Amino acid sequence: MSFRINPLHPLFAAEVIGFDFSAPPETMPIDEVLTAIDTYGVLAFRNTTPPTDEQHVAFSRRLGPIERGKLIKVTGHARLRLALPELVDVGNLDPDGNILPPDSRQMKFRMGDRLWHADMSFMDNRATYSLLLGHEIPPEGGDTEFADMRAAFAELPRELQQLAETVDVEHSIWHSREMAGFPPPTEEELLSRPPVRHKLAHVHARSCRKSLYVTSHASHIIGWPRDLGRGLLSELTKFATQPKFVYRHKWQLGDLLMWDNLATLHRATEFEDALYRRDMRRTTCREREVTSPDAAYA
Questions:
Q1: Residues 241, 266: Cα–Cα separation, whole Å
Q2: What is the domain range of residue 65?
Q3: How many other C-beta atoms can be found within 10 angstroms of the C-beta atom of residue 236?
Q4: Residue 221's pLDDT band (cuts 50, 70, 90)
Q5: Which phi and psi (to 5°) does residue 252 adopt?
Q6: Which residues does 127 contact at the CB level (< 8 Å), separation at least 6?
Q7: Domains of the chain: total
Q8: How many Å apart are CA 232 and CA 164, to the nearest integer?
Q9: Is 41 part of a structural domain of the chain?
Q10: Contacts of 250 (CB under 8 A, 6+ apart)
């Protein structure tokens, strides 16, 4: 299989033209894909029609351990819309294919997607790659923005780099949801996903470049006064999401967008979500195999 790569931004992000998702998974040039994602952090695979759910999952499995399991518990969210357990539903449709009411708990939960975040930083076993496929996109709005955390780390003052490499940060899905206006979590929601901690910066394992790991799920710096730690996290996020570090992706039907959560942040942008349908399906790869029932939602 031959395909070509065209850069989309001076620092990171590229589009992939000519990748055949109908090919047998064992014949796919996965080493070339991994080399490209290490280089660019974000890859936009252009397809004239969306790959099938089965093709989406089969390709994702070639990239590493894949998330497969129940969702984070959102009270009142009982039935799933998608048949394959590897797929996370990040659209605005209910199980019957109708647009969710804006005041529903599920839609309020999804508002957290509009904050800068890395998928599943609230897990000990973090997300590596996310692969988001657009099956149905609104006629306007709904772009996805990405920020290059490796480039941002490289431009930090040396003293901030050293500090970021030494402090631990607590991450919680409920912190980011509270920031986005989600109602106070219920007891079953809290129990479904307790907080974890990660370093504020790390060495990206494959590219060996240092990267910030600041995300809306990051609640506070361990051992610091809460207001002081949150102030630093806010300032670092503001620095790392300057326009020069950001690529904005305008969706085309059939796009499969792949990004590295350990090298980038992303966020959804607004659209008329009570008017337009948006069917988006995501697979998520993990740092290591999932050996017990787990959760993946945002």
A1: 10
A2: 4-286
A3: 23
A4: very high
A5: -120, 145
A6: 67, 118, 119, 120, 121, 261, 284, 285, 286, 287, 296
A7: 1
A8: 10
A9: yes
A10: 143
Of the listed ranges 62-76, 101-115, 268-282, the least confidently predicted one is 62-76
The residues near 155 (Cβ < 8 Å, ≥ 6 apart) are: none
- What is the rounded distance in angstroms from the CA atom of residue 41 to the CA atom of residue 38? 6
Q: What is the CATH number of the domain that holds 246?
A: 3.60.130.10
Instruction: Give the separation between CA 184 and CA 186, rounded to whole angstroms.
Output: 7
- Reading the block at residue 24, the tokens are 């047998």
Mean pLDDT for the stretch of residues 276-283 = 96
- The residue count for the chain: 298
Tokens representing residue 36 in the block: 């490209």
Q: How far apart are CA 86 and CA 66, in angstroms?
A: 7
d(CA 265, CA 176): 14
Can you read off the two tokens belonging to residue 32?
């070339």
Residue 270, in any domain of the structure: yes
Q: Rounded to 10 degrees, what is the CA torsion of 211, 217, 222, 228?
A: 90
Of the pLDDT bands very low, low, confident and very high (cuts 50, 70, 90), residue 298 is: very low
DSSP state string for 35-102: HHHHHHSEEEEE-SSPPPHHHHHHHHHTTS-B--SPPPP-TT----S-SSTT-EE-SSB-TTSPBPPT
Q: Is the pLDDT of residue 70 over 70?
A: no
* Residue 15 included in any domain: yes
Amino acid at 36: A
| Maximum alpha-carbon separation in the chain | 54
Q: Are strands 264-268 and 88-89 parallel, antiparallel or unpaired?
A: unpaired
The values of phi and psi at residue 11, to 5°, are -105, -35
Residue 293 maps to a domain? no
CB atoms within 10 A of CB 53: 17
